[in-house]
Amino acid sequence: NPTVLNAKLVINTTNLIDSHLDCHIPNIWKKSLSETKQLLLLQEHEMEFDKIIADSLVDKLKAYTQTVSFQSLGFDYQGFTEALIFDVQIKQSVNEFMFNLYKNGRVSQHSVGMRYIKIFMCVNSMESTYTTEKANWDKYYPMVANLDVANEKGYFWAVTEAKVIEGSAVVKGSNSCTPVMEMIQENNYTETQKSRRS
Predict the structure, then answer these.
(1) C-alpha to C-alpha distance for 36 and 71, rounded to whole angstroms
(2) Residue range 136-183, pLDDT digits in tens
(3) What stretches of the chain show up as alpha helix (H) in DSSP?
(4) Does the pLDDT of residue 192 top 80, yes or no?
(5) Which of 30, 69, 130, 154 has the maximal Cβ count within 10 Å?
(6) Burial of 87 from C-beta contacts in 10 A (0-12 / 13-18 / 19+)
(7) CB 94 within 8 A of CB 43
(8) Element (DSSP H or E) covering residue 181
(9) In DSSP terms, which residues pair with 85 in a beta bridge?
(10) Is 57 helix (H, G, I), strand (E, B) or coil?
(11) Residue 32 in contact with residue 188, Cβ under 8 Å?
């Protein structure tokens, strides 16, 4: 039976308007990833010890961005997205509940815990009071993959910089394009356990 899962998780993707009407723009995480000392993989954004799945200070957890097609993630959107990825070891000994959910393929979405740094309101309006917001719309609208949402609402928020606090396994995230990319199971016996079994 496996005791460790080596996982490649998509925590966030850019170029999609999410349920908060935010559209994350490529390079949103660049500064934060270069400065952040500690990152957490949590259960449902809960900052509690028993909700930790992995902690980069003591566990194997590497965060980075990678440009991939939406189709490669299993979604029908056209074009490419910059995915925030956690390469992480999920250990049964740390959070057995979430370990079993991941092992059994029950986790299909993730979510990023973040702090806004730079955000721009984009409005599709020719009214003089929205001159700046219309300029933002013209700049960021071509980057949006789910244009039907932008067209229906007539506005959205372009987030160009944010600070990563944590990534979480969630039942349903504000951005559904956040799957498990890869999962490899392995045993993680100690030398003492190995000798006892021999």
Answers:
(1) 30
(2) 999 999 999 999 999 999 999 999 999 999 999 999 999 999 999 999
(3) 30-35, 96-103, 131-140, 147-153, 191-197
(4) no
(5) 130
(6) middle
(7) no
(8) strand 180-186
(9) 10, 64
(10) coil
(11) no
Cα–Cα distance, 191 to 84 (Å, whole number): 35
Phi and psi at residue 156, to the nearest 5°: -165, 175
Q: In the predicted model, is pLDDT for residue 57 greater than 60?
A: yes
Can you read off the two tokens belonging to residue 4? Answer: 């460790």
Question: Does residue 195 register a pLDDT over 80?
Answer: no
**Residue 120 is which amino acid?**
F
| Integer Cα distance of 121 and 130 in angstroms | 10
Burial of 128 (0-12, 13-18, 19+ CB in 10 A): exposed
Cα(10)–Cα(168) distance, integer angstroms: 10
At 29, the amino acid letter reads W
**Residues ≥6 apart with Cβ < 8 Å to 36:** 63, 163, 164
pLDDT > 50? residue 4: yes
C-alpha distances in Å from residue 129, one per residue of 94, 106, 133, 152, 195:
53, 48, 9, 21, 75
pTM exceeding the 0.85 threshold for the entire prediction: yes
**Cβ burial, residue 35 (10 Å; 0-12/13-18/19+):** exposed
Q: 90 CB contacts (<8 Å, ≥6 apart)? A: 4, 5, 6, 7, 41, 53, 54, 98, 99, 102
